[in-house]
Every structure is written in structure tokens, then in C-alpha cells.
Amino acid sequence: MNICGIVAEYNPFHAGHAHHLAETRRILGEDTAIVCAMSGNYVQRGDLAVLEKYTRAEAAARCGADLVLETPLSACLWSAAGFARGAVSLLKALGCVTHLSFGAEQADLPLLRRAARLAGASAGALRRGLAAGLPYAAAMQQAVCAVDPTAGALLAAPNNTLAVEYLCALDALDSAIEPVAVARKGSAHDSDAPTDGLPSASYLRRLIAAGQTAECRPLMPAASYAVLARAMQDGTAPVVRGAVDQALVAHLRRLTADELTRYCGSDGLQNRLADAIRDNVTFAAICAAAQTRRYPLARVRRALLRAWLDLPQSVPPDAAYVRVLAVGARGRAVLRRMKQRCALPVIIKPVTEKRLPAALAPALRRDALADDLYALAYPAPARRTGGGHFRQTPYCVK
Fold first, then answer.
1. What is the pLDDT of residues 115-148, one digit of tens each?
2. 394 and 326 in contact (C-beta within 8 Å)?
3. Can the peptide bond before residue 238 be classed as cis, meaning omega within 30 degrees of 0?
């Protein structure tokens, strides 16, 4: 049996994600088990997920994923390179994943591989681009274009860029996992409207935040929409960052520029953040004041969320344990195989954490704190209590 990994956020799970799962099985065989490394309650663009992680994992499992695991928190608040490395390190550690499937605007695997090789060999040019004030993605594209303009042109599209980072992570980790490129269909990243019935996740989030949830129904699998509607009814959705705006700003105001270096480095961003925090009263305004071409909005948001969660930049993105969020139809068989081969501790129920090595305690505490702070953004006040991290168990497809 092929076991294919997919790196995802499913924020929320929509028709385009269902297409990716179906295409992966069409390419590899209908009996392929799909294991998703999914972002938890915080996503790589530097924001809170619109639905909490177990709810999103349930939607994925009910729509065809066989096992949903949580990508390490640190990786979720990292650049594309760290995000890819954290997810790939998790999938590699399972010891049973045979393939990695990802979407790309241009699913030309040989060309994507060439771009990845050039990216890995362009460290000097990348550093020069960053020193000149370019954001990471632009510096990488410039470095690759200098050697191969065709390969470099791929990096103008966000999913191509992530695909190249996945390939770089596979190489860096010396993984035998075989990549599978699936042509991305539907709306472009951050598009304002669906294309051929396939929306962008950001379009759906805007509808949900505006109270137009019913308009999401034709753009999501029925099971995923049902999960969303239930979460809306029980007061755990939609989660919006504005709900914790004052809590965020109050914490950030306590930090000096020197203290902010723990979360964003010392290349000057810490000073821009400190000034923006002093002069503005909302998270969005702080971000708008701090961002520049050199410091893109997503990087600014990630740095501020790291500060709020007390998640230093020194914490590596690599997986230190495996947290199971949902188990689908073939997931139990994958779990059994995992337990025989996995190089990391596997957490299924919260009680498992008590038996893990003491060295993992700081990371586990950070996970619990992150989930408690996330809960403050639930719409229903009664849902905002802490401790949910220790009460949650994986969703299982019956």
C-alpha cells in the first residue's frame, strides 16, 4: 500500500483540497492511504486558524484523509523553508510514508527539481539579496533566475515556491520519500472569487468572517460544510484575530526591542516592531506600520505571534513528537505501521504526554499555552476557558 503525505492547513477544507486528494489517489492508486501534516491553531501566514485544529482535522478525515497529524507549532510560524522542513521532518519520522503530494501552479516535476537544486546551491546569492533588503521569496527567485531564468520564473507563484521548498526539505533530510506534483486548479492564492467552483481558502474565510457562511456551501464538500456549520452553532467558529486584539497588544507593549530579538532576529525588524507597537493600538495597525518590502506582512505577523506565544525563533521547526488529530478509514492500519517504525513519540491521547521524556516538556507546555490563548478568540465566552489542550482526543471515522 502506498502511503502518501500531504502538507496542508485546510483553513477551511474546501473543494480544491478534495480535488487534490482525489488527484493524488488517481496518480498513485485508489487504495493509497493519505497522511496529512496539518497546521494546528496557528497558520503560516501569521494568523489564527478560522476553525480549531481538531475540527479542521475532522473535516479532512470525513472528506478522504486517512490520518491527520499536527505540524509542529514552530514550523507553522516560520518562513516557507521552515514550514516545509517541519512538515517533511514529521512525515519522514513516521517511517512508512512512501510519497509526498503537493499542488503547484506548474506541476512539472523535473523543472521543480531543477529549481530546488539551484535554490540549494545559491546560498551566497540568497544572502546578498537579503542583505540588499529583498524579502526571502524575492531573494530566492533572483538567485535562481541568475542561473536559470526558466526555473527561477517558477518561484513567482506561491504554490510553486512551496513545492520547491518541499523538494529542498526532502533533499536536506536525505529522505527517500518520492514527490508527486499535482496541477493546482481553481482560484489563485488569495483570489477574490472562485474559479470553476474551486475557491481559495482566503475567499472562504472572508465569507465566514462576514457572516455569509451559507455562500460557502457549494464551494465545500458537504461533510466539511457540516463541520463548519456545527462549529458556528456551538460557538467555536469563526475564530478571528480581532477577538484577541487587546490581549495581543497588551502583551506586546511589555516588550523592548532587545526582547523582541528572541522572536524575530536582530536584522532591524525588532526596532520597527518596537516603534510600531508603541505608536499603534491594534494588531493590524502595528503590522501595517512595521511591514516594508524587506519585512513582508506575513513575516511581521509571525514574529508578533511568536512573541505573544513566547515561542523563540531559536526553537527549530523539526518535529520532536507526533500528535494525532484525526483517524480516517485506513488510518488505523497506518497507525499500526507507524507505531512499529516511527522515530518519534506518538501522542494520541493527552495522558500520553505525562510519559514522554522530560526534554520534551518545554515544547509540550508551549503547545498547551498556544491552545489556551487561541481559545480566547472563540465567539462564545463560555468556550474560552483554558485546559482544552488536555481534554481533546482525535476524531475517528467510524
1. 999 988 887 888 888 888 888 788 889 989 999 9
2. yes
3. yes
